[in-house]
Design brief:
heterotrimer; A mainly alpha (about 80); B alpha/beta (about 350); C mainly alpha (about 525); A: about 80 residues; Non-ribosomal Peptide Synthetase Peptidyl Carrier Protein, Chain A; about 0% strand; C: about 525 residues; mainly alpha; 2 domains
């Protein structure tokens, strides 16, 4: 899948999970930038992403991500 | 967020320098303040009120607040406390010299010559009439007395020997807190259960004789007519002997004696000087432990300051002992008579030059 | 050997630091690590020599297993990981729970556990190797991180140093290998900045421990001891003793944590935070993010997440709906995590009850928050007001105090007596003297408690005060926490230097008052 398509789809999941349509995509977006992004919603976000993209990642894969851009790279592979 | 500060312009190394300087000054100021606080020795003497050393308060009162004369002072550890009766000493010496002689036992449990030196200094100051001081020869005394830490001035503590003195830093570091507590007690003695002023009604009297026995703060009885079965006595003597041997390494017996016994040497020198200045005669008394074994002693050293009287024959009579190293009242009677006989000539010489 | 002893502060630490600097100057990284390892072994031997073999077995065994996990993949790797984690957990359970199981077996099967019999000898209370709860958790985190691919390389000396690092060896903060390794392997620089930060943190921590915590303990301990003998306090006393214990434990453990961070910083290592003004939180979730943070973080990273991700997947795949996902993916793992935190403190019913209470608090709070969020979305309710925050704060602290009763009480009977008193059952009972400086009693207790409350509510916490010195590893939630009305902030200059120097000297002075061990040395 190409990067832009991934980003579009990802931000749909993102807005749905964190109740936030305002946030625009940035490569360096992190949990600190989103009020609703805590360890609980993080789990829901992980599973929602897995569902939407039909992929399954380990906790190690997730923990290796430093920012939203890394997730896009992972999904774009 | 990148922490701002140290290496940013305007807040440079000179700031860190000033901070480090402040650290040192702040530390030193508090240290100096605690060391210069007013110190009340009477309150300090009450710090041991809940321990077996609770008689430090009476000793302080006897020296500082009781004008009754002290001609002969007995200073040493629990062996001397249990084994030399000041009343019998008073009696025998008065009789022999044909005039009233007051003997007082200022003995305190636990060994340590540094505390003895403090007692002698106070004694010659507040009771210049003192003529004879009987000090205990307890064998090797490499340690500091626990009451030294409570009673000594900062100068006393700092000037103690540094080499081979495992209590040096312990005593030194205890000073600031001790002084703070002392000031708090001066301000609110009631909170701490101590007394700032001498109360004659709570004083144990001029002639306290602890060989008669007394009750410890924890309720146990000590001294008096206590006896111990012979078998138990000998077993304990064996144990004491064994611990003595196992401690030889801890006491660094391979080093020269003057190093190993630095506390003893330093404080005996101080006591010797005070005795010279005030024309006081020093005599040492060694009370043996029961049975054939006795701890190593160093009479050659002590005899530089005065005769070292060993009451060696006591050890053959188990009936004289309440435990392996302490005499009971029966032992104390015999020991005191014997000792009085032998110190009388020195006292006579001092009184009639 | 405790941080709050002259032997450590004035002898051990200066010697080890000098050796470390010397090694760095003359020899390089290997020698530096050897100094850290040797210092850790000496430190441990001085504190708890008999348990040294346990520590060594843990080191060798975990290194071997970590090596296998790194070298394998797939199910073999998973097998090694499960083996390693199980062995570590088993060691903890054996040392902490054997006596507990035995005591409870004896209740259920008195015959089987007859005194003197083989069973009663087998299930007896074991002496606890100092620090086992902490270094075992660090080992588990290492094994899991190796399996998760978060540890690129595992060098033997760095590994040994990461467990034996004496600043956190016996009582935390639980620091991950991946946080420690890059810091200790890096060429040390900034000695000045690290030194200044280290001394400052150590001074603050020592002051908290010897002046604050050890003053509170003087009346907190006797009160709990009195209750353990069967006496019942009156309501005011019950609340005061529990609040006093909270303050005592906070100053004790946060003081210890500051000292650990300070000592570690002398060696160029920043540690994770353990406390961030936990007494000013507005929810129980917030409490667990800011109280004993390194434990909460461990439980979140290795227990909660390991349960939550697969359970959430399962719930979503089965189409359980929002509440189903919530219960299975959040509430269940939360409850398990809290029970583990309780049980981690030791094999006693009081700790289990403590964990159970916090499990209930967390589940209720999460569920309520979830329900409220959903409602807010539908009805468009306002964001939480200031009053909501105050209400949340009071409720949280009440819950914490209630759970602290079994945590500190000698047994459940004592805990019940204190709870009874807190709700006013003993209103008329008289427990006259406050067991502290008899003539002052309640007055002194009130003054000390007021001073403690002032410090925790009005002053910035250590990490906030020292933020210019970058005193710890980053904590994401820190920015939102207020610095209090004074907003004090450390800066390089004479003023703070004077205060810190004075605090250090006073802290050292009060070491002489009497050696009190740190609360968390017994876990």
């Amino acid at each position: 899948m190409d990067r832009y398509a991934v980003i579009d789809k990802l931000m749909e999941v993102f807005a749905d999970t964190f109740d936030d349509d305002e946030i625009a995509y940035r490569d360096d977006l992190t949990a600190a930038d989103v009020a609703e992004w805590d360890s609980l919603s993080n789990i829901r976000f992980m599973v929602a992403v897995e569902q939407a993209f039909g992929r399954k990642f380990s906790i190690g894969d997730w923990q290796n991500l430093k920012q939203l851009g890394d997730l896009v790279n992972l999904l774009a592979v | 967020m990148e922490p701002a500060g140290l290496y940013q312009p305007g807040d440079t190394l000179s700031g860190i320098g000033r901070y480090a300087l402040g650290l040192v000054i702040g530390f030193a100021l508090v240290l100096a303040a605690t060391l210069c606080l007013p110190f009340n020795g009477y309150l300090a003497s009450q710090q041991a009120r809940d321990s077996e050393m609770f008689h430090t308060r009476w000793i302080y009162e006897r020296i500082h607040f009781d004008p009754a004369p002290i001609d002969v002072a007995i200073i040493g550890s629990s062996r001397v406390e249990a084994g030399i009766s000041p009343l019998i000493m008073t009696q025998v010496l008065s009789q022999k010299l044909g005039r009233p002689v007051h003997a007082v036992s200022l003995a305190m449990v636990r060994p340590g010559r540094d505390y003895h030196a403090l007692l002698v200094r106070d004694l010659v100051r507040y009771h210049p009439e003192v003529k004879l001081i009987i000090l205990s020869d307890d064998g090797f005394m490499p340690l500091s007395h626990p009451m030294f830490q409570e009673m000594a001035t900062p100068t006393d503590v700092v000037s103690q020997p540094l080499l081979i003195n495992r209590d040096y830093f312990k005593n030194l570091f205890a000073l600031p807190y001790r002084n703070l507590l002392n000031v708090a007690e001066q301000v609110r003695p009631g909170w701490f259960g101590v007394y700032k002023t001498f109360d004659p009604s709570r004083y144990a009297g001029s002639d306290l004789d602890r060989t008669l026995g007394y009750r410890l703060p924890d309720g146990h009885w000590r001294n008096g007519d206590t006896v111990m079965p012979v078998a138990q006595l000998m077993k304990r003597a064996e144990q004491t002997k064994a611990t003595g041997r196992s401690r030889q390494f801890v006491h660094l017996s391979f080093l020269p004696e003057a190093w190993r016994l630095a506390i003893e040497y330093r404080n005996m020198a101080a006591i010797g000087r005070l005795a010279d200045d005030h024309h006081v005669v020093l005599v040492f008394v060694g009370l043996p432990m029961v049975g054939p074994y006795d701890e190593p002693r160093n009479p050659a050293f002590l005899m530089r300051y005065g005769p070292d009287i060993m009451l060696i024959s006591l050890r053959n009579n188990p009936g004289f002992y309440q435990d392996d190293v302490h005499l009971n009242r029966a032992g104390a009677i015999v020991a005191t008579r014997d000792l009085a006989d032998r110190v009388a000539p020195f006292l006579a010489k001092r009184i009639v030059p | 050997m405790a941080f709050n002893s002259y032997g450590f502060a004035l002898l051990f630490l200066p010697i080890v630091f000098a050796l470390y600097r010397l090694a760095a100057l003359l020899r390089g990284p290997g020698a530096r690590l050897l100094v850290v390892i040797a210092a850790g072994l000496v430190f441990y031997a001085l504190a708890c020599a008999w348990a040294l073999p346990v520590l060594l077995i843990s080191l060798v065994g975990n290194y071997a297993v970590a090596g296998r996990i790194a070298a394998t993949q797939g199910t073999t790797q998973r097998g090694w990981l499960i083996f390693g984690v199980t062995a570590n957990v088993a060691a903890l359970v054996i040392y902490k729970f054997t006596g507990f199981f035995g005591a409870n077996l004896a209740l259920v099967m008195p015959g089987f556990m007859a005194a003197g019999g083989a069973a009663s000898r087998l299930w007896r209370e074991l002496a606890l190797p100092l620090g086992i709860s902490f270094f075992t958790f660090q080992q588990i985190s290492l094994l899991v991180d190796v399996a998760r691919g978060l540890v690129p390389q595992l060098r033997p000396l760095t590994y040994l140093a990461s467990i034996l690092f004496f600043p956190y060896l016996v009582s935390g903060p639980i620091t991950y290998y991946r946080e420690f390794a890059p810091q200790i392997e890096a060429e040390p620089r900034d000695w000045l900045r690290n030194g200044i930060t280290g001394i400052t943190l150590f001074s603050v921590g020592l002051f908290k421990k010897t002046l604050l915590a050890d003053s509170l303990i003087l009346w907190v301990d006797p009160m709990f001891a009195d209750v353990a003998t069967g006496k019942s306090p009156v309501a005011v006393q019950a609340w005061v003793m529990v609040a006093g214990f909270l303050m005592q434990m906070y100053f004790d453990f946060s003081g210890y944590s500051d000292m650990a961070a300070g000592v570690a910083r002398l060696f160029g290592v920043r540690l994770p935070l353990n406390f961030y003004s936990p007494m000013r939180v507005t929810s129980i979730m917030d409490w667990w993010r800011r109280w004993h943070m390194s434990l909460g973080r461990f439980v979140n990273d290795y227990i909660f997440q390991s349960l939550a991700l697969p359970l959430t997947r399962k719930a979503v795949m089965r189409g359980h709906g929002r509440w189903g996902v919530m219960v299975l993916g959040v509430l269940m793992p939360t409850a398990v995590s809290m029970l583990v935190i309780g049980a981690w403190h030791g094999g006693r019913w009081t700790y289990i009850v403590f964990g159970l209470l916090h499990a209930v608090y967390m589940v209720v709070a999460e569920a309520w928050l979830f329900w409220r969020k959903k409602n807010r979305k539908h009805k468009g309710a306002a964001a939480p007001s200031r009053l909501d925050h105050v209400r949340g704060h009071v409720l949280t602290i009440l819950c914490v105090l209630v759970a602290l009763v079994p945590f500190r009480a000698a047994d459940m009977a004592s805990a019940l007596r204190i709870w009874g008193a807190m709700v006013g059952f003993n209103g008329s009972a008289v427990w006259l003297p406050w067991p502290v400086m008899a003539p002052v009693g309640a007055g002194l207790v009130a003054v000390e408690l007021a001073a403690a409350l002032f410090i925790v509510y009005a002053l910035p916490n250590t990490a906030q005060w020292l933020d210019r010195l970058d005193p710890s590893l980053p904590f994401a939630g820190g920015d939102k926490v207020s610095r209090g009305p004074f907003g004090w902030r450390w800066r390089a200059g004479l003023g703070w230097g004077l205060l810190t120097g004075a605090a250090l000297m006073l802290g050292l002075t009060f070491v002489s008052r009497g050696a009190n061990s740190f609360v968390y040395f017994s876990f």
